[in-house]
Request: fold
Amino acid sequence: GNSVTQMEGPVTLSEEAFLTINCTYTATGYPSLFWYVQYPGEGLQLLLKATKADDKGSNKGFEATYRKETTSFHLEKGSVQVSDSAVYFCALSLPNSGYSTLTFGKGTMLLVSP
Amino acid sequence: DGGITQSPKYLFRKEGQNVTLSCEQNLNHDAMYWYRQDPGQGLRLIYYSQIVNDFQKGDIAEGYSVSREKKESFPLTVTSAQKNPTAFYLCASSMIGQGGETQYFGPGTRLLVL
Reply:
């Protein structure tokens, strides 16, 4: 079946540090890949996505590249801020009769200190 | 503003009681979804629907029921058969297309058992 594996957290960083959150996937077919972010007590917000191999998604300084050869979609940011503290979810979707259900990883908590 | 609303924000259930969580969207999306979030577990799909009066079971549908009488609305009922209902419930919606469509999430409802 389809699955997403993320590095376990929490990831603790100082402000302005470099961030990497690893994400690998297993899927039959050619999935689309997503990163969602969840702030405490809130729903999920789309951070970025990529729909085909070698695509790079980017938003708010975050980036991730769809690597088919390593089945990975690692999230990176060059300089984190305290306001980036949240839980980050990697997810995949496969087309199914025109709509797509998401398969999520377990989430990685990021804590950024001043 | 377009978006997804969920109510209530907090809901308390007594033993043997059915409770209904509301989800409304004004994004004109055809597809709607319900997820359950438990600490450290990521999100798991309960039910989804791509058209009025039609819906499909997700990975953990037992103890839950849904209806889709209007395009904008997709209420979830947690029945007394669900023995461990305490969780954070998230509703989402998306367009229907070729795959890779972004799902947009509501703010969630936290269900607690008295």
In short: The CA atoms of residues 37 and 43 of chain A lie 9 Å apart. Chain A has no helices and twelve strands.
